[in-house]
Structure formats: structure tokens, C-alpha cells
Amino acid sequence: MRQEADSMGAVDVPASCYWAAQTQRSKDNFLIGGATEAERARFTFSPLFIAAYAALKQACAHANASFKLLEPKMAKAISQAADEIQAGALAGNFPLVVWQTGSGTQTNMNLNEVLAGRANELLTGTRGGKAPVHPNDHVNRGQSSNDTFPAAMHLSAALALQTQVLPALKMARTALTKKAKQWEKVLKIGRTHLQDATPITLGQEFGAFAAQLAYAEAEVQKALTALLPLPLGGTAVGTGLNTHVKMPPLAAKYLAKRLGLKFTIMENKFFGLSAHEPLLNASAALRTAAVASLKIANDIRLLGSGPRCGLNELNLPANEPGSSIMPGKVNPTQCEALSMVCCQVIGNDAAVCAGAMQGHLQLNVFKPLIIHNVLQSAQLLADALISFTENCVVGLEPNLPQLERHLANSLMLVTALNPVIGYDKAAQVAKKALKENLTLEEACVKLGYLDAKTFRAKVRPEAMLGPDR
Fold first, then answer.
1. Cβ atoms of residues 61 and 78 within 8 Å
2. Active-site annotation holds for 134
3. Which residues does 292 contact at the CB level (< 8 Å), separation at least 6?
4. Where does a domain end: 349, 383, 401?
5. pLDDT at 323 > cutoff 80
6. What is the pLDDT of residue 432?
7. Are residues 177 and 130 in the same domain?
8. Is the pLDDT of residue 257 over 80?
9. I need a surface site. Which of 181, 217, 437, 450 has the fewest CB within 10 A?
10. Of 110, 141, 172, which closes a domain?
11. CB-based contacts of 228: which residues, under 8 Å, 6+ apart?
12. Count of domains forming the chain
């Protein structure tokens, strides 16, 4: 062990770690999420968030050095330490759970202490301490937890949407679009209210799935754009006290160049500290994508139900045995996994909504809750969509004989007779066919409304796929 000190006094910390007193106090005081450190690890901040926060600290160090507010050698050491964090080299030094102070102060200090501790080791050979690099005076120069934590929230959420969610949505949409084109002439019966409806093609059905994900992509992209303005420079309450006026925009410029997104600085930093509508909007976009994905997964599961006593219109890939007691059973496991993830994302969005509405006066103090759920939703949804695409969508095949049987047996083909014999007579044909187990043609002929030849000319499923011409 070694001793580190903060404004409350000395604290023993493990000699092998880079953190100092404030991190250790938080680690000891918030034993929430499990009886052991391993169990609580489920609730630590994601590597993406820690890396984004390190990039932010790095940008601030460069900006402060350019205004001669930080010695070049200190800025260089802090930057090198930040590079190591972003590369994952110091991963074990961020043990704090999200269940802490609502401003994220402990995690901000965790970053400050680790960066200072590693910078001091680089400069002097001694790990930790406050000299020559001080966690508050140097690493946190011109900053506060109240503006850097939400800035890191924006950075990490934007990166998650850009690198995880959008590629996964595009991958799934592309696969569904390919199926839609492949099956554009495969006739089948449509269904509304889970009852037989008029004909469509399997391609039209899958085209709707692809369109759902295209809409979700557009919403995620809009949410990403709204995250690019950062509240950096607001410091404690939004006024910017103790920060150089040009430091935040220079840091944002550095971040934009390094991370590849056009980050800027918010015009109203009071808003950025006290409210989190951009994060709420990002969560809502993820919820929209989850709702769309859930609909698609459920429909594919229904269409693949059977194989003998269900719809059985799609053959789903058989990835693993489906039952521990029923031999030969295969289940739509990828559909179910995606569906569960979607439910989790929808639940996470409810938590984000609850947290976002708790902005009291100049500071929202539910920041860790909000970003934890947004990043978890992004990761889960992206992973599940990729798995669903690779292990289900790509291997889907139509059961053509079953599609043809369902189409031929549907009573709703009678809808083609509405302009010929009228709605009421067409309804009589359908009811008679159902009651007496007749074909529509047989029922229509028996009722004397049309002869067989005219019926066949008017009731053609392939001619019922669009508006009248």
C-alpha cells in the first residue's frame, strides 16, 4: 500500500494502482451492485466512456498548454497517459460503480488522479502523488465535474451511435433489402389482425422491414448530430468560472480531429449542465430502433412457426437444438434474443427518461444513470442486430409450397370482386365458402354471381399487388 491525501486527509491505496485518495474513498463508500468487486464490475463505466473521458482530458491539456496555462512537459505527460487509457493499457484503474454522486464527481476525479499518477510516473519514475502533476490544479485545470462529465457523456454516446449502432442497423437493413429484392415476385397472403388479408409478395413484406430500419437509422443519425455540441467550459454552474474563454472551442477542435466527429461547444452551457435532452433524444432513437427490430423479429418468428402446425412460410436457420426434452425441436433463438434485447433497451429508455426529468436548478444529478443506460442500450442493440443478421436473416428461405397453399386457400381473395359484384355479394361468397368448405370459385358459381371463367379472370392474386391502373 501507499498513502495518498486529499482535502479530507490521508488514505491508504494499493501501491500497484494509479488512482489516489478520492477514488479510494468512492470505491470504499459505494459498495452497490454486489457483495464482491467482481459482481460490482457489472456496474462500472464502460471502456468507451472511460476512453472518451480520457480523450476529453487530453484535449483540455493541449488547449491549456497552448495558452501557457499548463507547462508543455506536464501536458505531454498527461497526453501520453490519456493515450494509454484510450488504448486500454490502464483498464484496471477505473473501478468505480455508476451508483455514486449524480454529477459523476468521483469518476472525474478518478480520471484526474489516474492521469496525474501516470504522468508523475512518466516524469519522475514515482507512481501517484500530486507532484509535479496535480490532479486538480493541472489535469482538471479550467474544468469541473459538472461540465466535463456531461461532455464525456456526449462524446461517448456519439461514438457509440457512430461506431456501433449505425453500422449494425445498416448491416441488418442491407440484408433485409437483399431478401426483399430476391423475393419480389414470391406471392403470399397478407395478414391484418392476424387474420387473412389480400395478397402481397414476400419481397413487399421484407421491404417494409428494411424501411423500418432505414427510418430508425435516420433517427439515430439525427440524435448523433444533436450530441455534437459539448457543454465543456461551463465549469461549476454554466458560467465558465476559472476557465480560459478560448480553451473549450480549442479542445473541441482537437477532439473533432482526433475522433472524427464535428464536435463543437454549446452556446448555452447552463442548459448542458442542468438538462440532458440530447441524451434523452439518443435514448429515444435507440428505443425507436428497438421497437422496429422487435416487430421484425416477432414477424419472422411468426412466419417461421411450425414446422407442421404453424404458418411455416419461412424456413429459419437451425442453429442449435431447441429443447432438452423434445427431440428434433428447433427454436427461433435469434429472434428471441433480439426481442429480449429490445425489451431491455425499452426499459433502459424509461430509466433515462426518469433521470433526465430530474434536473434540479443548475445541475442534473442523474448523469451516471443516464449515460450507463444509453451506452448499454447501444452496445446490446448493435450486438443483437449483428447476431440476428448473421445467424438468422442471411439464412432465411421461403417455404414456397406452403406460401402457395395459404394463398390458394385464402378467402380474402374475394376482395378482387368488390368492383365486380359489390361488397355485400362478395361477403356472401366468402361466408358461404367458409361455412360449406368450398373454394371461392365454387361458392360464387353456386350463388349465381359469376361463372367460373369470369371468376378466374377477375380473381388473380398477381393482379392484386397494387392500385388499379
1. yes
2. no
3. 212, 213, 215, 216
4. 401
5. yes
6. 97
7. no
8. yes
9. 437
10. 141
11. 154, 158, 261, 262, 263, 264
12. 3
Q: Work out the mean pLDDT of the chain and round it to a whole number.
A: 97
**Catalytic residue, candidates 7, 138, 193, 406:** 193
**What is the model's pLDDT at position 469?**
74
| Ordered alpha helix ranges (H), 304-451 | 333-356, 367-391, 400-409, 418-421, 423-436, 440-446
Q: Is the peptide bond before 231 cis (omega within 30 degrees of 0)?
A: no
Is residue 300 domain-shared with residue 314, that is, in the same domain? yes
Distance (Å) of CA 429 to CA 190, 200, 417: 20, 22, 10
For the segment 427-440, the average pLDDT, to the nearest whole number, is 97
E strands, 166-261, are 187-192, 195-201, 229-230
Q: Look at residue 110 in the predicted model and tell me its pLDDT.
A: 98
Whether 138 sits among the annotated catalytic residues: the reply is: no
Q: Mean pLDDT across the stretch 228-233?
A: 98
Query: What is the pTM (predicted TM-score) of this model?
Result: 0.95
The x, y and z cell numbers of residue 186, run together, are: 414470391
DSSP element (H, E) containing 398: strand 397-398
Asked if residues 283 and 290 have their Cβ atoms less than 8 Å apart, the reply is no
Range of the structural domain that residue 68 is part of: 2-141
| CATH number of the domain to which 416 belongs | 1.10.40.30
User: 86: pLDDT confidence band, cut at 50, 70 and 90?
Assistant: very high
| Residue 199 to residues 64, 133, 188, 297, 420, Cα–Cα distance (Å) | 67, 72, 6, 22, 18
Q: Do 134 and 154 lie in a common domain? A: no
Find the distance separating the first CA and the last CA of the chain, reported in whole Å: 83
85: domain CATH number is: 1.10.275.10
Tell me the H-state helices in 161-201. Answer: 166-182
